[in-house]
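We give this protein:

***
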Amino acid sequence: MTYATTATVVLALTAPTAVAQDLGPYHFKGTVWNPKALPAAPVVSGHALTKRTATTHPKDYRALGSYQATAPVWPAAGTATVALTHTVTAVRTAASAGAPSSAVAKTASPSVPGIGSRAKTGTARLFSPSPASPAATSSPLPSAVVSQVVPVSGPVKAGSLPVWVAPVAATATGGKRSATLVGAQAPAQVRVQVASHAQTLAAGADGMLLEVARADGRTAAGSVQVVIDYSTLVKAYGGGFGSRLELVVVPACALTTPQVVACRTRTPVAFSNRANADQLTATLPLSVQRASATAAQSPLSSGSARSALSAQAAGTGLEVISGTSGSQGNYAATSRQL
């Protein structure tokens, strides 16, 4: 055995014994960490609070408050009849030849349905003879009572509904308005019906759904001016909802059978949206033949659809729907082309 081999064997036998004797097992002495004492924090001296003085605000100052969204109030369903004419009674006195005649007119304004006002009678002198006229000093002459039916002078509210109706003034030659008698085809009385919010949604409209029909017993076509107040639902949706509202004409059967496709046909109508007054205004044609013709020309094979169109032939439907733009901005989808 060589010297190197012998040395290796000896070291292999003695090294474990030496390590075990020098290191020994670990004993915990009870001390893990001895932190140093922290320095004392500096003391800040206090000071007395000054008295708060009242703040002076400008004249038109209003305190800021939290924004509260106004919940829409959808109009309740209802029906009202509106009279668009009233009778003017004139008492005319027969005058002598060449002398001016005198007359005293009495105007009776009918009560508006749903308003609760009573008829009022006023007296107005149409012709006043001069003091020097013989008619002023002569004895009373025979008189005659003349009555005329004239249109109302302004819009009439349809009961408690948010709708006003006014006659469309007839025009004479040259485009001047006629200020006396009502035309033979002008509606003297109309019926206004407002559908419920559920009916409006069923017809595919997000605003209002109405029907306007003649109620004077006549079958001729006519026109009326309609004013719709949408102030209670002006903020029903975002994006300037009130300013984007517009009017379209639909068959009157949209109020009863909106599931029929032909009853949801929309026809544009000229309108005006006064966003500062929350009002929509339009001249609405009342044609009793419009729905009947549509029913006759409808290619639908369903008898219920034609019956629905024919049954509602006497009225004209009107929808208040939202468009894509208005006086408060354009909210239409932008083009993806650069």
About this structure: The CA atoms of residues 291 and 313 lie 5 Å apart. DSSP finds five helices and 17 strands in the chain. The radius of gyration is 44 Å.
